[in-house]
Structures are given as structure tokens and as C-alpha cells.
TrEMBL record:
It comes from Candidatus Criblamydia sequanensis CRIB-18. This is Bacterial sensory transduction regulator.
């Protein structure tokens, strides 16, 4: 395990998260709290980029991929409303990332961060884990309702009634 993964693992564990390094896929797995026991996959891709005006200047840049599969079965009849719901959810989030993978019939939350030459600091990393956990806990029940056959209109109507 490289130093950056080790650092993220130590941070997550210091806050009580269970972690595991998956050497085969080169991913850090972080178990989120909550009813669904989601597993976040953290992968780092490092690329060397040259600046366009100089052949001598290059820098190592990191792309930090974080994703989790959301285990909600759905059928093709619910696809239009699922897509509309995820668009509705994503446009209201500071860090949108709900994805409907129609080909593999999967729902996931995915985000990518660009971090030049270093790792995300501890506070930002923990805020990110908390934010993803909050998003999943908040929106998974709504996604499940659509996946099991409720229309988006019915869902929005019942949610609006519950606010009044």
C-alpha cells in the first residue's frame, strides 16, 4: 500500500471507520455507517502532465476516485423515473454523483477529485466521507421507492404532503 492510501486509511480509522486495502484492485475500502452498510471504494490515479509551453516542466497530478455501489434492484420499466429522480437529486447537491448505469443495471454514487501533488487534508477528507454518507442515507429510500414501481410524480406528491 502506498503512503497516500495509508494516510487515508489512518484518518478514516481514527474516526472509527472500518477499512481494508484491496491490493488486487489497488483500492482502499471504507465501510460507511448506517443501515445500508455501504462500502466506499477509493482509488487514486496519478498522471504526469506536461505544460503546453514547456517540454521541461511536468508535474504529477492525482485524481482521487470515490464510488460506492447502491444495492437496489430495478427493472427497465422504472428507468425513466429513476433517471429523472437522479437528475432532480443531483442538481440540488453541492457534490452531485448519483449515477444510473442502465447497461449493468446498477445504481452508484461516484465522485472524482483532482488533487495536485498531494493528498486531501484530513478535515476535507472526513467532510467528504460524511457528506457521501449523508447523501446515501437521505436519498437511497427515495431511489428504492422509484425502483419498486412508484412513479416520480407519486413520490414528489407524497413527500410534499409530508412537509405540510
Amino acid at each position: 500500500m502506498n503512503e497516500v492510501f495509508s494516510g487515508y486509511q489512518k484518518i478514516a480509522e481514527s474516526y472509527g471507520f472500518l477499512t481494508e486495502y484491496n491490493k488486487a484492485d489497488e483500492e482502499l475500502l471504507i465501510k460507511l455507517p448506517g443501515e445500508k452498510s455501504q462500502i466506499l471504494h477509493l482509488r487514486i490515479d496519478e498522471e504526469v502532465f506536461g505544460f503546453p509551453l514547456s517540454d521541461e516542466k511536468t508535474s504529477l497530478e492525482s485524481f482521487i476516485h470515490i464510488y460506492t455501489l447502491i444495492d437496489i434492484p430495478f427493472n427497465s420499466n422504472s428507468l425513466p423515473d429513476l433517471a429523472r429522480l437522479m437528475n432532480f437529486i443531483n442538481k440540488s447537491l453541492e457534490a452531485p454523483g448519483f449515477v444510473l448505469d442502465e447497461i449493468n443495471t446498477q445504481i452508484l454514487y461516484k465522485t472524482v477529485f483532482f488533487k495536485p501533488n498531494e493528498k486531501i487534508n484530513e478535515n476535507t477528507f472526513m467532510c467528504l466521507l460524511g457528506l457521501i454518507s449523508l447523501y446515501i442515507d437521505t436519498f437511497t429510500p427515495l431511489i428504492e421507492r422509484i425502483a419498486t414501481g412508484e412513479s416520480l410524480e407519486e413520490l414528489l406528491e407524497s413527500e410534499l404532503k409530508s412537509l405540510v
